[in-house]
Write a structure and sequence with these properties.
Helix content is 34%, strand content 25%. With 321 residues, it is α+β, with helices and mostly antiparallel strands. The strands form two sheets. It has an eight-stranded antiparallel β-barrel.
């Protein structure tokens, strides 16, 4: 396992500026300064510094997809073969998430295939890999909350509402070739100004501005703020697998989606039919989450796996386990 370097936690001001970007990845400096009560020069300087040292990346992500074809994988591997299997999974375009357990013997991953298609990775490649000792694959039935929905709980409700641009929950229409050209240009940096996008795409500046407004209004331009949660003071990253009676599944999932620690909540097939990904301050907070916060939701069993390394997540690139 790679040696971890010390993580510097951002101060309160910077954490609030990160949370503001979560509300709207293309938020203007002026709007952020007005709502948060910070000078425009300070906002511009701190955002530039956070992006320069890659503490924060704002990326454009695909419109919310139907969960059909999304599979959660739990893969147990021989300890001496962990790095090779992790690297192979992280290199795949159809695997957007790869986590390694703190124990170093289990990989959690998300595989994305076309609806109705048979995944060669799940049904053929992984089962034939000698390094894999056990494989569990469950299908996602419903998404209650995904990573781009999570909001760092350091803003007031009024601040969050003032900073959030209203978008339709379900995307309206399909992007045409020009829209796709702009979305591709924003994939690595969703905060590129219109003038820069015009230069990259060869489109007139007026066209870029008009198209960006249309993409936003139709819910086709979605942004995600990629940041190491440890920079926000969260030392515990965990995956929680729960078994819930069918008549309590929806209410439990919706409750999880509203919890400030939950950055992912999914209903799945399999005995453990509800999954939550959580960020918490410490192990005491995780204990309270499992023993108290989950109480009353009708949960019959809980399997908690600490994440030792978040190897691959959208916008964060690939880290060594």
């Amino acid at each position: 396992m790679a040696t971890e370097t010390a993580i510097q936690v951002l101060d309160e001001r910077d954490q609030r500026l990160v949370a503001a970007l979560q509300c709207d990845g293309r938020l203007t400096v002026e709007k952020a300064a007005e709502v948060l009560g910070v000078g425009t020069r300070t906002v511009r300087r701190r955002w530039s510094a956070l992006r320069a040292d890659r503490a924060v990346r704002v990326v454009a992500i695909p419109a919310r997809r139907d969960p059909a074809g999304v599979t959660l994988l739990r893969i147990r591997v021989l300890r001496g073969r962990l790095d090779a299997v992790v690297a192979a999974l992280a290199a795949r375009d159809d695997i957007p998430f790869v986590d390694v357990s703190a124990g170093g013997d289990e990989i959690s991953a998300v595989a994305v295939a076309g609806p109705g298609s048979r995944s060669r990775l799940v049904f053929e490649q992984l089962p034939r890999t000698s390094a894999v000792t056990a494989l569990t694959a469950v299908s996602v039935l419903h998404v209650f909350r995904e990573a781009s929905d999570w909001r760092h709980d350091v803003l007031t409700r009024a601040e969050r509402e003032a900073l959030t641009t209203t978008r339709p929950v379900t995307p309206e229409g399909d992007p045409d070739e020009t829209d796709l050209l702009l979305l591709a240009a924003l994939a690595d940096d969703a905060r590129l100004p219109a003038a820069a996008l015009a230069g990259l795409t060869g489109l007139p500046d007026s066209t870029v501005r008009r198209r960006l407004a249309s993409l936003t209004a139709r819910g086709l331009l979605r942004t995600h703020v990629a940041i190491d949660a440890r920079r926000l003071g969260f030392t515990v990253d965990a995956n929680v697998w729960m078994q819930v009676p069918p008549d309590r599944l929806d209410s439990a999932g919706r409750w999880l989606a509203g919890h400030p620690a939950v950055h992912g909540a999914l209903a799945t097939t399999g005995p453990a039919n509800l999954h939550a990904a959580v960020w918490l301050r410490d192990l005491d907070a995780l204990y309270r989450f499992v023993s108290k916060d989950l109480a009353g939701l009708g949960i019959q069993s809980v399997d908690t796996v600490l994440v030792g390394a978040a190897v691959k997540r959208p916008g964060s690139g690939i880290r060594r386990p």
